[in-house]
C-alpha cells in the first residue's frame, strides 16, 4: 500500500479518536457545570492526555501535541461547539412559568420529551464514540512506539493501553470523579485485549494489525456496555 495513503488513513483515525475523546471530556465538564475554559481544558486533556503520557514514557520530547498542534486545535473546536450547542439548547421552564395547578403546559411537555430523546440519543452516540476513541488510541499508541523503533511486546502493550485510557483517567481526576476505568464495566481490559491482538498480529502489516486491534477493543467495549459486564468486587463476592 502507498505510504502516503497509509499515513492519511492513520491521520484520519487519529482525528476521529480526538473528536470522540474531546466530546467525552467536554460533556463531563458541562455536566459538572464548568465554564467555557473548563470545558475546553477537559476536552483537550481527555483527547491528548494519553498521548502525552505515552510520549514521556517513550522519551519522545516535546510530546506530539506540541509538535503537531492540529489535534489540540480539533479538540478545542469540538469542546467549544459542544459548549455553544448546549448553551443554545432550550432548557425546561422554571416552576413559575408552569401551570398554577401544578401541570405542565402542552408546549413545555413537548419540549421536555424532545430533551429526553436528545439525552438518550446523546448517550448512545457517546457510548459508540467512546468505544471508537478507545480502540483508535490504543492501536495508535502501539504504532507510535513501533515507529520509534521499539519492539518489546510488553512495552508496546503498555503504551497502547496508557494511550487509550490515560486521557480519561486524567479527565476523571481533574473533575474529581472516581476514575471510570477502575469502577465501571470492561474498559481498560478491552484496551488490553485489543493491544494484545494488535501486537501479536504485527506480521500482517501495520494497518491490518491496527484495524484488528481497534475492532477487538470496540466490540468488547460495546458488548460490555450492552450486557453490563463488570469485573468481580469484594462486596459482590461476600454477598
Task: Describe the protein in words.
By secondary structure, this protein is an all-alpha fold. Helices cover 75% and strands 0% of the residues. It is built from nine helices and no strands. The protein has helices at residues 3-31, 36-58, 64-67, 70-88, 106-147, 153-174, 188-200, 206-227, 234-238. The longest helix is centred in the middle third of the chain and has 42 residues, at 106-147. The radius of gyration is 20 Å and the shape is globular. Residues 92-100 have low confidence and may be disordered.
What layout of secondary structure does this protein have?
Layout: H1 3-31, H2 36-58, H3 64-67, H4 70-88, H5 106-147, H6 153-174, H7 188-200, H8 206-227, H9 234-238
Helix pairs in contact: 1-2, 1-4, 1-5, 2-4, 2-6, 5-6, 5-7, 5-8, 6-7, 7-8
